[in-house]
Design brief:
This is TRI27 protein. InterPro entries: TRIM/RBCC (IPR050143), Znf_B-box (IPR000315). By secondary structure, the protein is mostly helical. The protein has 3 helices and 3 strands. It has a single domain, classed as Double Stranded RNA Binding Domain (2-Layer Sandwich). The radius of gyration is 20 Å and the shape is rod-shaped.
Length: about 110
């Protein structure tokens, strides 16, 4: 039960953080690059940041691996789905163990 409660708390916290981050990203996307006022077109894997064409060519990101935005979205969606499946499997196992323990106690 303690593990499940901790997992619930973490998932609530992660959901709130993701929601806040999503709101910030929406604002960034609407405005584009803060420095250059250009549209954000690529994703820097090393920094985990959206970049415009000018930022992409800057010294700070020139040597970094970048992906076109749709490809980065697809990659991260796949990663999230895989991790979600792992968590759901672990939750199911915990629930089965809990149920078995409850039956044993009865």
């Amino acid at each position: 039960e303690r593990v499940l409660e901790i997992a619930r708390r973490l998932s609530r916290g992660a959901a709130l953080a993701a929601q806040e981050e999503g709101e910030e990203e929406e604002e960034e996307e609407e405005e584009g690059c803060q420095k250059h006022r250009e549209p954000l077109e690529v994703f820097c894997k090393e920094d985990g940041a959206l970049l415009c064409a000018i930022c992409r060519e800057s010294r700070a990101h020139r040597a970094h691996t970048v992906l076109p935005l749709p490809e980065a979205v697809r990659d991260y969606e796949e990663q999230i789905q895989a991790r979600l499946q792992t968590l759901e499997d672990a939750r199911d196992k915990l629930l089965q163990l809990r149920e078995a323990e409850m039956r044993r106690n009865w």
